[in-house]
Give the backbone structure.
Amino acid sequence: MMETEVLPINPAVPEPAVLQRAARILQAGGLVVFPTETVYGLGADGLSEAAVQRIFAAKGRPADNPLILHVADRAMVDRIAAAVPANAERLMEIFWPGPLTVVLPRQPQVPDAVTAGLATVAVRCPASLVARELIRVADRPIAAPSANSSGKPSPTSAAAALEDVDGRVELVLDGGDCPIGLESTVVDCTAPVPILLRPGAVTLEMLQEVLGEIEVDPHLAAAAEAPRSPGMKYAHYAPRAPLRLYEGTADAVAARLAADAAVLLRDGKRVGVLVSAELAARMPRGVQVENYGSRQDLPTIGVRLYQCLRNFDHLPVDEILAEGVTEQGLGLALMNRLRKASGYRIIYC
Ligand code: TXA
Ligand code: MG
């Protein structure tokens, strides 16, 4: 264990002295937690095998789950990718800086620890000014997974990150709440037809519009398929209490979820529900309600989802019942995270 320093940083106008201090820690092989527009990242020098190894230790992350390298701009990609296919070039032009990660062929100097020995490397240029300036000042790609312990929901605030990694990193930069709250979209651009590996705020519909053709990893549709993105088999995004997910039309879900909650209560169980504002109003008395916001407002659900999941770890609950949302637009990312949080315990209504 070590003493973790926490420094506030202005997300709109990051203080140069704070950036300098963080960059020096990274250059010396240390770990820095920093905000991005998606979730907080746990950063290390992306070209140092030893520094990257420390990320895996701090998170308890399995070594065969590769990391994303974060770059300050398009030019930095040429230090780590062996080639940039035309499809990837278009995606970077349109969606960078932003919540999109592209998987590219790697250069040999990218440490094996980053890629888990794969021939490819995942690259993202964040919209967050703190993140981009930190990378620019450190003058190297920064490897950064989400700053949670392996298996927990990603942190969307410095406080949530500290719950998991206090004492395991040199510095936490506190830049306030993340404006998106869900991890970046990941697209494999090494195949002739790009493949969506992880849905995020750059939606499938947006990708289709730019690329024309894109495949969707079968894992995103059916739980049974082997995941192509190595991380997909590990990430649980799960609170401590078991969670089951209710999918179907809003009315059918509302009726079934409320009825099941009532039965569990009668059996003496402590029940938590993770539901929309619309359904929160109809819950039986005695359940712990985490309200993720209106069904009509998917971006707000994105911001709040992981906060709500983490809140359950501070509440006395034995069972959590969660209401699904649409799979349109950002809904695909929300449902992907909810299904994983449930361990695919899904009730179709
Ligand atoms: O929004 C984000 O992407 C955040 C912030 C900090 O940038 N980072 C993040 O990293 O979510 P992480 O490590 O939690 O998730 C990275 C995902 C994993 O599912 C991993 O398996 C996948 O990207 N990935 C990394 N390198 C890959 C590669 N070469 N091929 C396929 N998938 C890869
Ligand atoms: Mg993660």
Q: What stands out?
A: The first helix runs from residue 16 to 27. The two ends are 47 Å apart (CA to CA).
